[in-house]
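Following the same procedure, the fold was encoded as tokens, giving this record:
***
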Amino acid sequence: MTERLPLLSENLIDFGRTLNDRAHSMKIRILTLLAVLSLVWSARPLLAAEAGSASSDLKALVGKVKEKLSAGKKSEADLSDELKEFDALIEKHKGEKTDDAAQILLMKAMLYLQILDQSDKASELIQQVKTDYPDTKVAKNADQILEGMKQQEASKKIQRTLVEGAKFPDFDEKDLAGKPISVASFKGKVVLIDFWATWCAPCVGELPNVIKTYEKNHDKGFEIIGVSLDQDEQKLKSFTKDRNMTWQQYFDGKGWGNKLAQKYGIQSIPATFLVDGDGKIIGRDLRGEALDEAVTKALAKN
């Protein structure tokens, strides 16, 4: 499992509860989620909405979409009936220049963006929200949503370059103790670049395995560079000291806005890259025994 900015498929209207649970520990940066948030603030009155209203119609349709997604039906063909129903609802409520009516078009856009991975179509629909519902809260957030989508696409583009066999783009920064930190400084060694945070439950859950692999292989030429998405420096220092995490940590206190997380398009954590002595990526997001096996194999080749 990973800590990530939750997708529409996870909870849809119930997404607000997820955000509330995580809000204390992470800074939501992908502004695309404003679209989902805008649905959340209209979700509460849905239970009392009149039959046939934009709110009740949307709630019913979202329920159908959730059923399809829960059954693993996530293609455009799978959702063709629901997409047609979105169009029917948009037509039905086109004369209502309200937030509830705008939500229908917005939700269709989010479906294209986060499930069907068609950002161009999603952008087109969000632009339509601005045109058709100019005085709504959704329309007023539209430019931020579009900007967030651009950031998300940029991250995906970066991630597509970080494949096995590719050279890991280096960095030259200072670690938590103010010492120089870079991949190049460990040339000839096997290095794990680990994007994580103390508030990330999956990261903490995987930590015993990371520590075990480090202690077993450090003397043989294995190093770790931690990139912490924490915002509390003292908490990070105490956490790493208590768990004897002696490797270097990069920290800038910006959470999801972490400089290196941005540089490498990190959208979920833990996110790890295992590189060989020449700085080439030989593994990504290795968990459990897979990490130790990959490290052992790589060290044998050094």
